[in-house]
Design goal:
five-stranded mixed beta sheet
Length: 140
């Protein structure tokens, strides 16, 4: 079963996908948030290409482990996306995933300007990989 991760922002949504065995997360693309929320043609194409059976949406938590101020907006958006495309969803802790994505891109020599548009899909792959790893550990 393939899983699609969504890093839902106000402007953009970063998208990552797992392999069919749910071992490795890979960044896919970044789409405008309004296109994903409306299940527009570009997002439907991603769904058709990858055929996910589950969406994992990043939920912002504070460092103390409580839901962050954006969590309610993300929950509403995830519910709407899930309903419009007919794919169930779960939430994953996205805490520090953007910072990890930026660090990784900086290590590759990208400037802040070059990072724009890439951070969201890398962040989605970071929290999806953590979600996959946690599931694999709990299944053992």
């Amino acid at each position: 079963m393939r899983v699609l991760a969504l890093d839902i922002g106000e402007v953009r949504v970063g998208i990552a996908v797992s392999d069919a065995l749910q071992r490795v997360a890979s960044p896919v693309c970044v789409l405008p948030a309004n296109e994903v929320l409306a299940c527009a043609k570009t997002f439907r194409r991603v769904l058709e290409d990858w055929e996910p059976e589950l969406l994992v949406c990043g939920l912002p938590y504070t460092l103390s482990g409580e839901e962050g101020p954006q969590a309610q907006r993300i929950r509403k958006a995830a519910d709407a996306i899930s309903r419009s495309c007919g794919i169930p969803h779960e939430f994953a802790d996205e805490r520090l995933s953007s910072a990890e994505a930026k660090r990784s891109l900086r290590e590759k020599g990208l400037s802040e300007r070059e990072m724009r548009g890439k951070v969201d899909m890398i962040a989605a792959s970071v929290f999806l990989q953590a979600w996959l790893d946690a599931r694999r550990i709990s299944d053992q």
